[in-house]
Amino acid sequence: MVRRRGVCRVSSGQLCAALLWLLTCIHGLNAVKIVKVVVPEIIQYGVQDAVILDCDYTYGNETSGLMVKWFFKNKARPVYQWIASQKPQDMGILRGRVDLTYRASNDPLKMHRALRIVKPNTDISGDYTCVVSTFMEEDSRTKQMIVFVPETNFRLIQNKTDDDTVNVICAADGAFPAPNLTLATPERRLDGVSHNLKLVNGRYSAVAFVTLNDADLPSPAEFICTLRISQAKYAVRKEAIYYPGPISTTPEMPTAADMQLAAAVGSKGVKLYTALSTVLLRALAQMFAS
Fold first, then answer.
1. Whole-model pTM?
2. How far is CA 157 from CA 56, 213, 242, 251, in A?
């Protein structure tokens, strides 16, 4: 009696799975992969001399053509490029603003992976994308950074152009990103508020304005203006007390900035501009009369 030797049969599915596993292992040995991107979410203008954006990664056996690029807002053109074994380059909006001597690691294949931006300003607020690549692989990550500027001037003005109404005006200058102004009383947010926003030399000026009837207000009435910059998780407020009644003999004088902002409102700001002009002229007349 003759016995047949056992035959080990391998299905095509098992063979494909084995080949896939083998290719995955080979790929893993050569892959470049970003493991950590550190980009400050919010920094305040003028508080620090420099900011560091880091992009750490792992690499495999195949590192030919290893290159790190940083892109700002879009991937059309890089703002920083480093090819391993060569000197890093800054370009575009970051030309002349990156410390090219900064080293994030002693590893010669990671040495200049990071950006050290000197004297960060609001114009570099936005999305930053780190791209690490070799001739075989590429990986990328994106994070946002906001350079935040608090307001330089924040005021809440109340004035009257007749005995029955009051103009409540909140104005702020010098902020970035764009601030949001809200007018309210302790009980509710005011309706019918007009807004104006203007960008001047990279900083925002904002105005919120509403006219209220004295008959609808308690005596005294409290007004609250809140300035918020949501991207920076920043908020401040001003309060003012108002006593309904006839026009005061000593109205509060608006500043030159208030007049400029009122003029910039356009057609929606005719009432605001008229109100401020009337108050200013009346105050000047009283000064000369005294």
1. 0.74
2. 51, 16, 10, 10
